[in-house]
Design a protein that fits this description.
Radius of gyration: 13 Å
Number of domains: 1
Structural class: mainly alpha
Number of helices: 4
Helix content: 55-70%
Strand content: under 5%
Largest sheet: none
C-alpha cells in the first residue's frame, strides 16, 4: 500500500456495476465482501477494492476522514 492509494479511495469512482459513480471509499461493506468472495478485478481497481475491503472489514474507515476533508477543502478553493 502507498499513501496515494488512500487518496485514490476517496477520489476514484467505481467505473461499472450497481454502484457505478460511487467513490470506492463509499462502497457498502457487503459489496466489498462480495468481491472478496468472488474475486477482485485485475489491476489497480482490484487492488484498491481489496484495500477498501480490508479497511472496512477491520473498522478502519475513519482513517479516510482527514483525506475526505482535505479533498473537500481543495474542491472549495478551486470553486472560489
Amino acid at each position: 500500500m502507498h499513501d496515494e492509494d488512500l487518496v485514490k479511495l476517496v477520489t476514484f469512482p467505481m467505473p461499472y456495476g450497481k454502484y457505478k459513480g460511487r467513490l470506492l471509499a463509499d462502497l457498502p461493506g457487503h459489496y466489498l465482501n462480495w468481491f472478496a468472495r468472488e474475486g477482485f478485478p485485475k489491476g489497480e481497481l482490484g487492488r484498491l477494492l481489496q484495500l477498501m475491503q480490508e479497511i472496512d472489514h477491520n473498522g478502519l474507515s475513519d482513517l479516510l476522514t482527514p483525506l475526505r476533508q482535505e479533498k473537500s477543502s481543495v474542491t472549495n478553493k478551486l470553486r472560489e
